[in-house]
Amino acid sequence: MDFVKKIIGDGFAQIRKLWKLIVSLYLPILLFFALLGMISRASDDITLSYFTRDVTALGHLPFFAGLTSQLGGMLWSITLGVCIFTAILLHSRQNINGRRFLLQAAILTGLLLLDDIFLVHEDIAPDYLHIGERTIVISYFVIVLFFLFANRNEILSSDFLILGLAFGMFALSIFFDAVDRDDLERVGIFLGEQMQTFLEDGFKFVGIATWLVYFARYSLHALSKDQT
User: Fold this and answer.
1) CA 143 from chain center: how many Å?
2) What is the DSSP letter of 45?
3) What was the pLDDT predicted at 188?
4) Domain ranges in the chain?
5) How far apart are CA 5 and CA 188, in angstroms?
């Protein structure tokens, strides 16, 4: 009985201590689901399950449909978490350059994650925002150039080869996405549609994995360096 009373007492004590955190966590989620409910009620073609159910369930697809795409999203998310968490830890150690680099990397990673998940440059931008796909791609290119230039000293003092490999993989993925098979055949490269799609998605997945390895290694090095 004393044990139960202690648990209940500790629970109420934690409620008094953490109620602001709990409200700040659940209130935005409640508002988010309320917004989804309003959208679904405003349209006869959109049901609430469109927002909440898994894509494979909605499309009656096998569980392994989009496997590498799902895994790629996980790797993007892990990288995002690594960059943010390390930047928070470096904040207390006054590593200004490293913190800025990781925060900018987190923003860039989050942008690429959202684009990869929601097909921003392929669907949302051209179909809903009336912005051409080429414009979005060029914007990403400019953002990446700014990121590299602004953090050139941090990059050059790190294992920049790994980051270069990641960008190389992304470049190959973009190449196979943009190139016409007829142009490849003119230079003696014969690819079927499935093989070209496989190369596009495969190089992108390898690039995401390499991106994660680079920032994981950079974060470990930055944290160990600050502890010495």
Assistant:
1) 16
2) S
3) 67
4) 1-52, 65-227
5) 78
Residues 200-225 pLDDT 10s: 999 999 999 999 999 999 999 999 87
Report pLDDT for 226. 64
Rounded CA separation 215/162 (Å): 9
Q: Report the length, in residues, of the chain.
A: 228
b/e per residue 48-79 (b: at least 16 CB within 10 A): eeeeeeeeeeeeeeeeeebeeeeebeebbeeb
Torsion angle in degrees (nearest 10) through CA of 26, 27, 30, 35: -140
Q: In the block, which residue shows the tokens 């700040």?
A: 24
Residue type, 94: Q
Helix (H), strand (E), coil (C) string for 118-169: HCHHHHHHHHHCCCCHHHHHHHHHHHHHHHHHHCHHHHHCCCHHHHHHHHHH
Q: How confident is the model at residue 178 (pLDDT cuts 50, 70, 90)?
A: confident
CA–CA distance, 36 with 45 (Å, rounded to integer):
14
pLDDT tens-digit profile of 66-88?
899 999 999 999 999 999 999 99
Q: Please, are residues 154 and 101 in contact by the beta-carbon 8 Å criterion?
A: yes
CB of 109 within 8 A of CB of 124?
Answer: no
Could you give the 3-state DSSP secondary structure of residue 191?
A: coil
In contact, 75 and 115? CB cutoff 8 Å: no
Nearest to 215 by CA among 104, 114, 137: 104
Kindly report, residue by residue over 125-168, the tens digit of the pLDDT.
888 888 888 899 899 999 999 999 999 999 999 999 999 999 99
